[in-house]
Amino acid sequence: MERLAGRILLLGGWRRAGLAVLAGAVGALAMPPFGIFAAMFFSFTLLVWLLDGVTGNPDKSGTLNLRSVFFTGWLFGLGYFVAGLWWLGNALLVDASGFAWAIPLAVLGLPAVLGLFYGLAAMLSRLLWSDGMGRVAALATGFGFAEWLRGTIATGFPWNAIGYAAMPVPLMMQSSHVLGLFGVTALSVFVFASPALLGTRRGAVPGLLIAALLSAGHVGYGAWRLYLAPPELGEQRQIGVRLVQPAIDQAQKMENVDRIGVFEKHLALTAAPPAEGDQKPDVIVWPETAVPFILTENPDALVRIGDVLEDGQVLITGAVRAEERGAGLPPRYYNSIYMIDDKGQILSASDKVHLTPFGEYVPFEDVLRRFGIEELISLPGGFSPAASRLLLTLPSGVSFYPLICYEAIFPNEIAPDLAGADAILNITNDAWFGATPGPYQHLLQSRLRAVERGAPLIRDANNGISAVIDPFGRIVDGLALNISGALDTTLSVSTVPKRNSFDHNLNFWLVLGSLGFVATISSLGFIRRKN
Fold this sequence. Notes:
About 45% of the residues lie in helices and about 15% in strands. By secondary structure, the protein is of the alpha/beta class. It has two domains: about 1-230 and about 505-530, no CATH class; about 235-355 and about 390-495, Nitrilase/N-carbamoyl-D-aminoacid amidohydrolase, CATH 3.60.110.10. The radius of gyration is 25 Å and the shape is globular. The chain starts with a helix and ends with a helix. The relative contact order is 0.12.
């Protein structure tokens, strides 16, 4: 290990740059559908040694040194995000004639921007770098802060945060209930980077011991919560749920030539009788934008829905909602969820708050138009964000917290005043991404929202991947990618209080402060030894 570390420290030029990109790309194997979390040990061990080679270069001034550190971190991020997000280009192939030109922006441009956060992480860690365990703590501090910033700034994009690599299965998801995604992320980087200590020996024993204790605590807490802790179920209520996953090709949805056929397919799956021995569902869930026209402008469609639903059943569906703005002004359109009863009446609705950039709106559209960049303005969009979110409450009193598609990737999306909802409802349409890693990554991130809050989750997709998930992240039942059908299952809700995001944020900053303290003490000792 020492010989290997020494060779990497001495790399320069394109070899150093290529290894940084490779290290990041290998780390993407830790994400679904592969879930090889051990790949992160390889990635972060190499990153520490690469940064050792830059920080220890006596031929560079402080400014040049920081620039080299930033560039190394950026290259690592570029490799990680290209390998982990290449499938975004598939969405642009749905209408290749109109948007194939934008594939390089999705496959290379976005990773290049996201890589800036990892460049920042490396640069921040350089400020507290030392020659022992402290540099691993410094790297964890830098990445913990950078990942939190990536999930927050400019509406945020925390997709594939490093912490997900440490939570591939329910046994390893439970720490997020206490620490949240970003707290787990910071500690994960410490553990993933700890083997680098074997290459320099200094601080190896205490560093590896702490990493081993963190790993044991991570898995041990998961085992305790899943198998040993007394169940905190409170008053239980069982709700029959039917998930409708029509698996309609996205190109067909966009063409709008067979809207009646699309609508009728949803109705047919809704009307299918339960399997022998099963009870009829109380709630039927359709995916995001399942209704291919404006519901309020098509009363016949509401009548058809009422005819298909049996007495007491409720349909929850995604649809586009139009809001008139007065004479001479075009209407506003919202990506919405409707709740409809067996009489075809709309009981309630909630609009999407957190829109997807370049998918549902174009950021800085006025500025782009001013500079004549019409190609970007022509990207799909046209939705308005809602000012607030509303709970969807069944006639029985059970309430759902609605998250539409992309909103489920944000740990702090659930507002404190609505956190008491009985369950989370996430409808989506991952048919945009085909049979790529995208739907699997989206599912994992949605599952973690259930664990963080301690609330069950209903997830319904047009194609990939629909499931009912319990408060521990376990899939109760589901429909796989590319399966068209209806699944009847049971949702269990309880009166146990749900965890608030404030707790996660507080614990994250405590974790980050502790790591930063260790890194600072080590850095000061390192400076004294050098002098």
